[in-house]
Task: structure prediction
Amino acid sequence: MAAAVDNGVNVGALLEAREALRKAPEAAKFTWRATCKWKKGTHSRTHIDGFHGLGQEHKHRTEFTFEADHPEIFASEDCGATPVELVLAGLASCLTAGVASVAQNRGIQLRSVEAKLEGSMDLQGILGIDSDVRNGYDDIKVTFEIDADASQKDIEALVAQSQKRSAVYDIVTNPTNVSVEVRKTNR
Amino acid sequence: MAAAVDNGVNVGALLEAREALRKAPEAAKFTWRATCKWKKGTHSRTHIDGFHGLGQEHKHRTEFTFEADHPEIFASEDCGATPVELVLAGLASCLTAGVASVAQNRGIQLRSVEAKLEGSMDLQGILGIDSDVRNGYDDIKVTFEIDADASQKDIEALVAQSQKRSAVYDIVTNPTNVSVEVRKTNR
Result:
């Protein structure tokens, strides 16, 4: 029965990759990259092009660019999503890709998956009004609506497994070290 | 001299907003939202449209959509950036917008700002090979190259202040609670 399930995920290839990397753990070390160029005001454009992994450089099929800005209510021009909305997009897409992969592995046919995310933030943090208020989200709620050939319980287990293996869920819920270097240039 | 500096950030409006929110802290409570729809395999599309803040609903000038996918080396179709690259874009754009805002407030004219980000990740985590390896980034390096009318020291101070007030820097470097709810639907 599982053979008839097709969520578009090549689980066989992923399991083979896991076996290959188990034997060659150095190849599992990846570096993901982004280059962000300031445009004007709070508007920037981030380019995503290549990455390193499996011991070599790779190019994406095409370059991906992301505009970011602040909204008009903060006297900006709203030329792109806010940076904090980009984080929600990263979290949503990571959990969703995980749901599809786990469903394929468990022989569950998906018909539709939609994740709605809400991140609450008290702007007294970033505006420096109250130093007890953090800058980032105080809470993120994710609501999945999933239509699939499975029980509510099995669908919940799918999502739980996706959380357990999600890179972005880990980045958001646990601390990640960020180091920053600054160079003055003349262009 | 500061009056002649123009980085395209309306600092006056931001300082007024801070004073207004200091008197009405309820209005500082924001909710940012994203809706992610599964396409096929690991490919999804996230829509960003409206948000809540200053006590009311707001729409962005236009809807923003973000494609996400996994690359071809994982047997996916590379229809978009990876979710972890989206997080880099969020971090890069947040710090960059902060640099522009702080520079404006300090009367420093920027000529160019570029941030290169590198996030290292050991895929033994997400592939479930080694449970001691985390799923997310083990380290993110940010390198700013900034051309501005200021000394290296003042430019470093700009970036440090941007980090101090950055929402995404806080989200990545500190733990954020994420709750997940799952509903089975029939579509």
User: Anything to note?
Assistant: The helical segments of chain B are 11-23, 83-105, 152-164, 167-173. The two ends of chain B are 62 Å apart (CA to CA). The longest helix of chain B spans residues 83-105.
